[in-house]
Automatic annotation (TrEMBL):
PANTHER family: N-ALPHA-ACETYLTRANSFERASE 25, NATB AUXILIARY SUBUNIT (PTHR22767:SF3), N-TERMINAL ACETYLTRANSFERASE-RELATED (PTHR22767)
Protein name from the UniProt record: N-alpha-acetyltransferase 25, NatB auxiliary subunit
Keywords: Cytoplasm, Repeat, TPR repeat
Major localization listed first in the record, in broad terms: cytoplasm
Family from the record: Belongs to the MDM20/NAA25 family.
Keyword Cytoplasm set for record: yes
Stored Pfam families: NatB_MDM20
Assembly notes: Component of the N-terminal acetyltransferase B (NatB) complex which is composed of NAA20 and NAA25.
Species whose genome carries this gene: Coturnix japonica
């Protein structure tokens, strides 16, 4: 029985073998098949283009281009030919030819939604923003859909971004884009979140911060739902631009009550508290503190709020780093103002020690703590490192002369301490013999740590890679600061070994490039220096 429904174009069936050969990389057979087909059907334009693709892929670019231009000159309007030419021009890195192709197609088939949208995308690839705007509006007139209208709006924004004259951007392109969106707002035609995002972007670029805030807080802002706290983040940004610190403070405080682990809100909270203190702000007697609710405007309130977040965290089933780091951040800010002792927030050294005990097995612990090491007096560095080492579960074995971690958590803790030692300059103060001893110990730990990464994929880093990196940096110090030439060759050996275990480690690769380049530079310097006569 004959199949009902859509009748397949017989040319599709004829072209299918050529497509299959091209997909399988058999370009010579694709050319032969195209030649056979063209003997029977000389006017089958798509077969010529598919042959051109085969020629392009076999290195015969001139023949491919000539054949493609022969077809393009006929201004084809069938999908097969247009799509094949688009693929060919992309492989030729000639996207500007695609625009000419669809310009001709649109003239012949002026009501085609598909060809108009392809023309718009072709302009987008070559950065023809003005033509994009025109194509978007032409498409909207044919098919009045919101996305096409906002394609045109976005094209205006792109014209403003790429404009050489910033004044032209703010007096012509952006105001026109704003009027276009306002028209849709007045007609109640805004449908999608992306359209609201675009409106917000325009107002922000025009520095109309109050209007942007009104959009986000109003009915249109209800559409901002795809990202977590998208609406609140945009409000926060506008409050900062408008220097509305009471709203900034109240909103960040409210968001921290919901999620006390979001660091950006702690920073905004502290910034706003100290701004309000500097401005001697006081809340109104009978009205609400702000549009966003209660405001904290004193150090006492900030201290109490952070302590409450830590108390709440202790009840949480999942350990949260934010409240503990916020306390250290508050200590640092208070210390800058010379009033830390008054509020007795605690000793930074002890707070960092307790933080390490709680989160030391996480790779982020080092990056968290390094921001606050300036709170430690330099005389306490060695004591602090020793204190951290005491709580790491290391065990000695008959085969090893040093105590080694028994699991990955202990390894991460020890790595954190080693990195902090490097940061605090403890290794820098050592003499050559001591540094070489540390290098040897680090490499023993590196090799031991490889045992934990036996199941790692090639794309994953070994858990102990940082031991190898630190050993290399110590050897580099010996080479660059003390002229120890053997150290650089040892660096290369260790890095090549590390790369064999972690082929995806970018730091190993960058260090190797840096050292090889430096050695080549030195070699060139020696070779070009004239010898004494």
């Amino acid at each position: 029985m004959a199949a009902r429904g859509h009748v397949q174009d017989p040319n599709d069936r004829r072209l299918r073998p050529i497509y299959d050969y091209l997909d399988n990389g058999n370009n010579k057979m694709a050319i032969q098949q195209a030649d056979k087909l063209l003997k029977k059907h000389k006017d089958l334009h798509c077969a010529k283009v598919l042959k051109a693709i085969g020629l392009q892929r076999t290195g015969k670019q001139d023949e491919a281009y000539a054949l493609a231009q022969e077809v393009a000159a006929l201004e084809p309007t069938d999908d097969n030919s247009l799509q094949a030419l688009t693929i060919l021009y992309r492989e030729m890195h000639r996207p500007e030819l695609v625009t000419k192709l669809y310009e001709a197609a649109v003239k012949k088939v002026p009501n085609s939604e598909e060809y108009h949208s392809h023309l718009f995308m072709a302009y987008a690839r070559v950065g023809e923003y003005k033509k994009m705007q025109q194509a978007g509006m032409a498409l909207y007139k044919i098919v009045p859909k919101n996305p096409y209208y906002f394609w045109s709006v976005m094209s205006l924004i792109m014209q403003s971004i790429s404009a050489q004259d910033e004044n032209l951007s703010k007096t012509m392109f952006l105001p026109l884009a704003e009027r276009m969106v306002e028209k849709m707002v007045k007609e109640d035609k805004i449908e999608a979140e992306a359209e609201v995002e675009l409106y917000y972007m325009i107002l922000e670029r025009l520095e109309k911060y109050q209007e942007a805030l009104d959009v986000v807080r109003g009915k249109l802002g209800e559409k901002l739902t795809s990202e977590l706290q998208s609406r609140e983040n945009k409000c926060m940004a506008m409050y900062k631009k408008l220097c509305r610190w009471p709203e900034c403070n109240a909103l960040s405080r409210r968001l921290l009550l919901k999620n006390s682990d979001d660091w950006q809100f702690y920073i905004t909270y502290f910034d706003s508290v100290f701004q309000l203190i500097d401005e001697s702000w006081t809340p109104p007697l009978e009205e609400e503190h702000s549009l966003e609710g209660e405001v904290h405007y004193s150090i006492e309130q900030a201290v109490k709020f952070i302590e409450e977040r830590i108390t709440e965290e202790s009840k949480s089933t999942r350990p949260l780093r934010g409240p503990y780091l916020a306390k250290l951040e508050l200590i640092r800010r208070l210390r800058c103002r010379g009033c830390n002792d008054e509020y007795k927030l605690g000793d930074p050294e002890e707070l960092m020690f307790q933080y390490f005990k709680k989160f030391g097995d996480k790779p982020c612990c080092f990056t968290d703590l390094k921001v606050f090491v300036d709170l430690l007096p330099s005389s306490q560095y060695t004591k602090f490192i020793s204190q951290l080492l005491e709580v790491i579960p290391l065990s000695s074995t008959a085969e090893s002369e040093i105590a080694l971690p028994a699991d990955i958590k202990a390894l991460q803790q020890h790595l954190c301490v080693v990195q902090l030692s490097r940061l605090l300059g403890i290794y820098h103060a050592m003499d050559k013999k001591q540094k070489l001893t540390v290098v040897r110990e680090l490499m023993l730990r590196y090799h031991h740590g490889l045992e934990f990464g036996k199941t790692c994929l090639k794309t994953e880093l070994q858990f102990s890679d940082y031991y190898c990196l630190l050993a290399v940096h110590l050897l580099l110090d010996l080479w660059l600061e003390e002229g120890e030439e053997m150290a650089v060759w040892q660096c290369l050996t260790l890095l090549e070994e590390g790369l064999s275990h972690s082929p995806s480690n970018a730091q190993f690769k960058l260090l190797l490039i840096r050292i090889y380049c430096r050695l080549a530079l030195m070699q060139n310097t020696y070779s070009t220096t004239p010898s004494g006569g």
